[in-house]
C-alpha cells in the first residue's frame, strides 16, 4: 500500500534519515520502533509531507506521491496523529472533530461525527469544551477520532501512548486494533515496544536514521537484539 | 455634549477597530506585524476620493473598488514581501517585518507620485446631512460609518466562528502544521488572510476619508502605528481584543480632545495603552502563554 524507497531527509545540513526503505501492507498494523532520535518521527513527517525528502521515493497505492503537501496527501487517504497529539486548544472538541472532516464534501459528516462521539462518549460529554482543557488521554482520543473522521486508508500514529497512564494506554491499544479491524491500515511509532509488537503484524527497528531490523512482530519479540535494546529483561 | 462626544468617539473607535482587525488577522495567522497595512489603508482612502470626488460615482462603487484594489495589493504583498521569506532556513524572524516596512515605503512614495503630496478632500453627497435630537447633532456619515463597521465586525466574527474557511483560518492561526495535516491548504489560507485583512484596511480607508474629509499619502503611517498599538492593547492576534481596543482608543482620544487639551490627543491614547499593559501585559483579551498566539 505504502512503499518507501531510500528516503533521505535533512534538517538543514544534518541528515536525519539515511536511506529508509519500508513498506506498509494493506490491512496490517505495522510498527516502527527505535530509541529517541532514531528518526521515527522524521519518517512519519516525511511520509505525510511535512518534511520534504532530498532523495528517495514514496509511493501510495501505486502512485508516486513524493513531495506532495500534507493536505494533498490527506486527500489521497494518509492521515497522521502527530506526536504530542496537536489538539487545536482554542477550538472546541466538536470543532476539532469537524476539522478532521475538513476535506470531505459528502453529506455524511454529521453522521460520522455523531458515530465517533458514540464511540468515545467522553468526547460527546465535553463537545463544547475547548480542546486545550481536556486531559492527556482525552486529547489522544480526540486526536485519533479527528484523524478517523478524514476517512483515511492509512493512519499514522506517532507515539499515541506517550505520557498516558497505563490503564489509558491499554485503551489506546485496544482502539488501534479496532481501527485495523474496521479496515484502516495502521503505521504505528511507539516507545512502548512490547505493547506495539503485540498488536502489530510486522515491524521495523530504526537506529540513527537507518532501518536495522525488519521482521514479523512475533519474531521481533524474540529477537535478542530487540529484546536487549527495547524490551528489557522480563 | 457628553453624548455627542461619545458618538464621535464610537465612530472613530469603530474605524480603529476595523484597521486593527486587519493587523490582528495577519498577526494571528502569520505571526508577523504587517507594517504595510497602514499604507494599504491609505490606498483604500485614495480610491474612495477618486471614485466619489473625481469621478462623481456613488459611494458603493467606491467601496467595491477599494475592496478590489486593496485586496490585490494584499495579494501582491503576500507574494512579493512575505512568501519568499517563509519557511526558508537562515531567514531572520525580523525579515518579514523589514520587508513589509519596505512595501510601506514603496506604497507611500507611489501614492505621492500618483495622487500628489497634498490633502485631498473627500466629497460625498451627504457629508453635511445631520439630525438634531434635542441638543445633540448627529451626522449621517457617523451613522453610516458605525453601521458599516458593526456589520463588518459581525460578518467577520460569524465567518470565523461558523464557516469552514473561518475555522480553517483559526486552525492555521493556532498551528500551521496541525492545520495542514488536517487537510487545510495553508498556503491558500495565508493568501486569503492577507487579502481579507487588506480589503478591510481599504474599507477603513474610505471610512476615515468620510469621517475627516481629508486624505493624504502620510495618513497610513499614523494609522498603522495606532492599529499596532490597538492589537498590543487587545492582545496580539485576538479578534475581540482588536474590536474592544479600537473602541477604547477612539473614545479616549475623543474625550481628551473634548475635555482636555487636543495637543495631548495621541499622547493620552498611548498612555492609556501603557497603563493597561502594565496591569495586563498580555493585552486585554490575550492569553498568558505566548505559544498559544502562534
UniProtKB/TrEMBL annotation, chain A:
A GO molecular function term, named singly, is: ATP binding
Q: Which UniProt keywords apply?
A: Amino-acid transport, ATP-binding, Nucleotide-binding, Transport
Q: Per its UniProt record, what Pfam families does this chain match?
A: ABC_tran
User: Where is the ABC transporter domain positioned along the sequence?
Assistant: 2-233
State the CDD domains in the record: ABC_TM1139_LivF_branched (cd03224)
Name the domain of life this protein comes from. Bacteria
* Family classification: Belongs to the ABC transporter superfamily.
Q: Tell me the protein's name.
A: ABC transporter ATP-binding protein
What is the source species?
A: Cytobacillus citreus
Taxonomic classification: Bacteria, Bacillati, Bacillota, Bacilli, Bacillales
Automatic annotation (TrEMBL), chain B:
**Membrane topology category:** Multi-pass membrane protein
Q: Which residues cross the membrane?
A: 6-33, 40-73, 93-115, 136-161, 189-215, 227-251, 263-279
Annotated compartments: Cell membrane
InterPro entries per the UniProt record, alphabetical: ABC_transp_permease, BCAA_transport_permease
User: Which keywords belong to this entry?
Assistant: Amino-acid transport, Cell inner membrane, Cell membrane, Membrane, Transmembrane, Transmembrane helix, Transport
- Note the CDD domains from the entry: TM_PBP1_LivH_like
Q: What is its main location?
A: membrane
PANTHER family membership: BRANCHED-CHAIN AMINO ACID TRANSPORT SYSTEM PERMEASE PROTEIN LIVH, HIGH-AFFINITY BRANCHED-CHAIN AMINO ACID TRANSPORT SYSTEM PERMEASE PROTEIN LIVH
Q: Which family, according to UniProt?
A: Belongs to the binding-protein-dependent transport system permease family. LivHM subfamily.
Protein name (record): Branched-chain amino acid ABC transporter permease
